[in-house]
């Protein structure tokens, strides 16, 4: 009898080609998890993730589920995973859950945090997890621009996949922009995000902060539905998936 | 006319062979600093450090001084250094100082912090800066043992250099042992430390915490003056030079 398990994961994505398996490499988060669980059960295992983080993106609260046939307790599976997974992937929590739980289909919302370093000194100890813009952005302008992005919109201008055939309508509930010490955190909450969407939103908001765009121009940008008109894609290393919401 | 400058440095020591130049590698902190300053002034430059951190050891408050002939202001030198130094070395502060200031001879005390991770989960984002002991130590026992080490003693048992010919007497003013979240910080303050001394003290205190030694045995250990009787040398990556004191 298979049992479904829900896991919460933290990982430093620096050396991975993202969440999803890729041909010709074992450097994916999904691949590492499946390989350890296959070794544990002696069977092929499919780990379902709440979403796919891109190459170089980190997570503190990624959620995944997996159906396993095993005699081990939850605590034993958790220990086994953390023992055999590399030191940059950690299973923070693992619990048996309903067979019907699907980490992607049942996800109601996600929180992402994008961290820029805007201090005077170099962030020697956190440099792998922050993006250092070349200029200091005006945070107030960024906040004004962010207000235009809140709500349900067609985010086609902020979609990194040019071949996207499905709807590009998403709801962004909040964008919190806070400076603490030299760190500028942009925290996004929404029902779902398109490919590269958080990074393109961040790059565009930074361009507003640099004075290259006006906060008001966000309105036209949404209407234009053209990726070519939005800002740069902020680098992966500043992005972290913080939380996935379920009922 | 040469001017003497005092610098405060932070670095992630992970990929370096320590502070001091080494033949056949440019991967030393001193070497990186001298090479950037030589490039800036067009002359050979000697950077004097308050001490020599070992390979893999980090710093948040290393102090160094250097005599330079330059037309640049303090702010310009600081900017030049941070621009050309690699991203894992940062000059936090740089000021002109008296010609007679010598970062090593004038140092009155040093603070080192050794960080162990003793939490349940893997420290995915801080793993390069902590040591993870295989057992959970009893912190109260470690604190009791540390009391025996405070004061002026011959620390020959805690000296990693078997050929040490000079005095191995040092004064340790305080050892603070604090647990915060999953992190166990051992903060040492003293007038000076022998080679590997902080790491051997930490390894020995951990062995007390594991129940392999008694707190009281520290007394005999100091008297024995034999490195063979002390504990293991805790790994470099947990150690960070926090501060150097001057008048």
How would you describe this protein?
Chain A has 247 residues and is α+β, with helices and mostly antiparallel strands. In chain A, 23% of the residues lie in helices and 29% in strands. In chain A, strands 1, 2, 3, 4, 5, 6, 7, 8 and 9 form a 9-stranded mixed β-sheet that branches. In chain A, strand 7 and strand 8 (183-190) form a beta hairpin. The two termini of chain A are 26 Å apart. The mean pLDDT of chain A is 96. At the A-B interface, strand 4 of A face strand 4 of B.
Overview features:
about 250 residues, alpha+beta, Alpha-Beta Plaits, 9-stranded mixed β-sheet, globular
CATH topology of the largest domain in chain A: Alpha-Beta Plaits
Helices and strands of chain A, in order, run as EHEEHEEHEEEHHE
CATH architecture of the largest domain in chain A: 2-Layer Sandwich
Low-confidence stretches of chain A: none
- Envelope shape of chain A: globular
The main β sheet of chain A shows up as:
9 strands, mixed
Q: Which CATH class of the largest domain in chain A applies here?
A: Alpha Beta
Q: How far is it from the N-terminal to the C-terminal residue of chain A, by CA?
A: 26 Å
Q: Could you state the CATH homologous superfamily of the largest domain in chain A?
A: Pseudouridine synthase I, catalytic domain, C-terminal subdomain
Question: Could you give the count of β-strands of chain A?
Answer: 9
Largest interface: A-B, 17 and 17 residues
User: What's the total helix number of chain A?
Assistant: 5
Rg over CA atoms of chain A: 19 Å
Helical percentage of chain A = 10-25%
What is the typical, i.e. mean, pLDDT of chain A?
Answer: 96
The fraction of residues assigned to DSSP E strands of chain A is 25-35%
Number of domains of chain A: 2
What kind of oligomer do you see? homodimer
């Amino acid at each position: 009898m298979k049992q479904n398990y829900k896991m919460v994961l933290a990982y430093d994505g620096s050396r991975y080609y993202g969440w999803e398996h890729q041909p010709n490499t074992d450097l994916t988060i999904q691949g590492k998890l499946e390989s350890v669980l296959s070794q544990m059960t002696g069977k092929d295992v499919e780990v379902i993730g709440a979403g796919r983080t891109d190459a170089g993106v980190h997570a503190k609260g990624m959620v995944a589920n997996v159906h396993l046939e095993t005699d081990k307790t939850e605590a034993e599976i958790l220990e086994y995973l953390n023992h055999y997974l590399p030191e940059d992937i950690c299973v923070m929590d693992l619990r048996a859950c309903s067979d019907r739980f699907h980490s992607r289909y049942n996800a109601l919302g996600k929180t992402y945090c994008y961290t820029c370093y805007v201090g005077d000194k170099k962030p020697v100890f956190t440099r792998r997890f922050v993006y250092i813009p070349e200029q200091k952005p005006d945070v107030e302008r960024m906040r004004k621009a962010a207000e235009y992005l809140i709500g349900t919109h067609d985010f086609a201008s902020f979609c990194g996949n040019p071949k996207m055939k499905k709807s590009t309508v998403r709801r962004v509930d909040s964008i919190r922009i806070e400076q603490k010490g030299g760190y500028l955190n942009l925290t996004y909450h929404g029902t779902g995000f398109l490919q590269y969407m958080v990074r393109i939103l961040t790059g565009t908001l930074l361009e507003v902060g640099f004075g290259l765009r006006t906060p008001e121009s966000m309105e036209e940008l949404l209407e234009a539905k053209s990726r070519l008109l939005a800002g740069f894609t902020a680098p992966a290393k500043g992005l972290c998936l913080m939380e996935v919401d379920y009922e």
